[in-house]
Amino acid sequence: MKLTLCLTRLLSLLFLLPLSLRGQTAPGAGAEDLTVLPALVDGVAPTALLEAQLKKLAFAALDRREAAYEQITTPADVTAWQQRQRASFLAALGGLPERTPLKARVTGQRDCGTYRMEKILFESQPGFIVSGLLYLPPGEGPHPAVLMPCGHTDIAKAGKVYQTASISLVRAGIAVFCFDPIGQGERRQFRQPDGKPEFSSPTSEHQLMGISGTPVGNSLARAMIWDGIRALDYLQSRKDIRGDRLGCTGVSGGGTMTSYLMALDERIAAAAPACYLTGYRRLLETIGPQDFEQNHFGQITAGLDHADYVLLCAPRPVLIMAATRDYFDIHGAWNVFRQSKRGYGRLGFPERVELIEADTKHDLAIEMREASARWFRRWLLGRDDAWREPAFEILPESEILCTPEGDVLRQPGARSFFDLNAAAAKPLAAQRQRFWQTNPPPAALAKVRELARIRPLAELPPFTVTTGATLERGPVRIEKLTLRNAEGTVLPALLFRPAKPSTGFRLYLHGDGKAAEAGPGGRPEALAQAGETVLAVDLRGLGEMQRGKRATGFAALQEPNWKTATLACLLGHSLVGLRTEDILACARFASAQWNEGRPVHLTGRGEAGVPALHAAALDPQVFAGIRLERTLRSWADVATTPRTRNQQVNTVHGALRFYDLPDLVSTVPVSKLVLHEPVDAAEQVESR
């Protein structure tokens, strides 16, 4: 008894020592090779295992969608398909905001000779200011108008691509409203003290905004779509615009928004998305998931693909514009066109959907500009001709800013996207409190399972183990193990066996991988020397299976596993949920294999901490004790922190409507749980 007590105290002291004082060895130091997996596992590199597993699920879902699509044979079938897909789309977005006063105002005008320009500001949501340029043809009108959301460029509407496209259309006799997407142009959300953008690319801003909105279910796409819908409201409010003759076009990210808007807003009488539509099958087979707003929670599982954006617009005219050498695969674009053509044909209007292919890279080439101008002249002006783009000049950015400083956030009462998230998160705190007060713990935890998609332990496929090489470190023997289940999950592990086991069994999970502390003098070895058997495991996407290394500085905001986390989101999963299942299945296996069926101790550090907390809350009987180190303290912090670090992998979509991490902590007995150095959403240790 005295020996056990002394060993227990020794273990506690080991946990409290800094890594440098415990003889921590960095991965790769020394002559030992702690790698477990071979260069290829079933023909796949270890770093691609999680991606391959998720792709298999995605392709199966896409197969089901295509099989269902093949059953569309009548106009009634098309209508029913549109109703289902529109409902799926809106559900994935979390619905749309309510209409509030636009508070639109003209901040400047310019006569450019062959056209006029007005500088416009309006509020798509209270305080959420949109900046745009309205190009007007000669005469009082009313003119047909085309909405042009910009793609991913830093200066957005002031850039050469969008000025050129806008002037080209207005010279063709059609008004154009070109506006800045959130995070671009005058709507940048991150600026240095001198007012310059903090990030060189707007995609970094979009990534951070998307992560911030995830726990509250405030999709970035939802906000961007709503900007476009309210821009259509603004156009309809003007007497010099024909509200029944509205179109939409854009390239790249603007092509994405055009696709969304034409699918959801029937006021768009004709559309021409460029350099985006390709389909998820080809996207996943080539470049993988892209920017945050291009991915909607659960959409692949729900059967919503790129072709559906066109089909939802049918029979309104759509011109698909694609580039031969685009990274959005041209073969996918032609497949979207084929599916769309059949759907339009079922409705009796096959001529209303067309595709042009420009032999260019990712760009709004002149072939596309002229084709879209002809398309809109045909469907909005009633002129079917071979219009050609004339020569013209564009203006410098400084001359077409809508605000004095080029920054809408300096306008009185302006709110950022993060302000919207914070406002959405605030009432959810009271909602969560009521939920946990009015539901017994089993019912509340059942909701947690549902939201995070974590199956009961009994439903998880069991692991089998393959033993590899063995290393000897004095009294400690280290065995290389590979855990595998029938669903294709493969987890590498290191088993630290003490010469004289005396203090139980520990499942050790490190966010930087099992090798982070597995070197000589590291914590697993120290625990084993004190008598504890330790299984250090790489959860899916960590350690040997992580996509690249975590960067430092601002580059660390882009997470190594962001593409796999995005793919999991598209399937309605999260890495939190998938890794929680890994932990539960590992704990069950370890208990039966090495601990005589008794509960095991659990340590989760860093990125492994949030799933470890879920495992402990949902199946506490499996664990004798839980220690969480440098684990995120709250998802509410993610929703209100602009510069989060590595939090896409730590979040569950829409979870804050029902639970936050402290709610899970409250379900674990105080005697079983240790929280060591919890961190905020920027991965900084919580100040006391």
Short précis:
This protein has 688 residues and is α/β, with parallel strands linked by helices. Helix content is 37%, strand content 18%.
Tally of strands: 17
CATH class of the largest domain: Alpha Beta
Tell me the overall shape: elongated
| CATH fold-type name of the largest domain | Rossmann fold
CATH-assigned homologous superfamily of the largest domain: Alpha/Beta hydrolase fold, catalytic domain
Alpha-carbon distance between the two ends: 36 Å
Radius of gyration (Å)? 28 Å
Structural overview:
This protein has helices spanning 2-16, 49-69, 75-93, 160-171, 202-213, 220-237, 253-264, 280-285, 299-302, 306-313, 330-347, 366-381, 417-438, 441-452, 523-529, 562-570, 575-594, 609-618, 635-640, 661-667, and strands at 105-111, 116-125, 128-136, 143-149, 175-179, 241-251, 268-274, 318-323, 353-358, 464-473, 476-484, 490-497, 505-510, 533-537, 600-605, 623-629, 673-676. It folds into two domains: 8-61 and 441-676, Rossmann fold (3-Layer(aba) Sandwich), CATH 3.40.50; 83-412, Rossmann fold (3-Layer(aba) Sandwich), CATH 3.40.50.1820. α17 packs across α18. The model is unreliable at 1-30 (pLDDT under 50). The chain contains 20 helices and 17 strands. With 688 residues, the protein is α/β, with parallel strands linked by helices. The strands form two sheets. It has a nine-stranded mixed sheet, with helices on both faces. Strands 10-11-12-14-13-15-16-17 form an eight-stranded mixed sheet. It starts with a helix and ends in a 12-residue tail after the last strand.
